[in-house]
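Following the same procedure, the fold was encoded as tokens, giving this record:
***
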Amino acid sequence: IPVINRFATIKLIILGMAVSAFSLVFLAVPIDWVLRLPFLHNHEQAYYFIIVTQIVVFAVGELIFSPRFTEYIASVAPPDKVSSYMALSALPMFIAKPINGFISGILISRYCYDGIRPKIETGNVEYTHSPEFMWMIYLALAVLSPIAVVALKGYLTRGEPQPPASGTSAP
């Protein structure tokens, strides 16, 4: 997308991560709030709407983040080690997958247990005991990533060419 090329890579990485993290807000919103939308008439429709909306917003974040992350890794790698850097860039995700699997098992057993649906449909579940609260926990974890990148931005962009000051033309 040509307009995206106007922005610094690290800013697009942060934006993409933030949009992807924000997508979890849709899953964390109390279902009663979603049911207030005039075109939703029951819990099933509301959950489908929430899930589709979350997937679309997450995909937009990934479309912004993923290519720029790959570009950034390739730009900081020495020319003879690009493939090694690319492979190692997947290491955090590789480490996070089993941790996420462990945490998700605990959260699902606590917030999405058998028999929760009738309680949700009758309004007998407090927010802090609902599946939506589980997503609030994931949202808190997801927000840490863009915050960490912003905090480490000076370190991550060391040696990266700076954009020309406004009013000057680039060669």
Observations:
- The chain has one domain: 2-156.
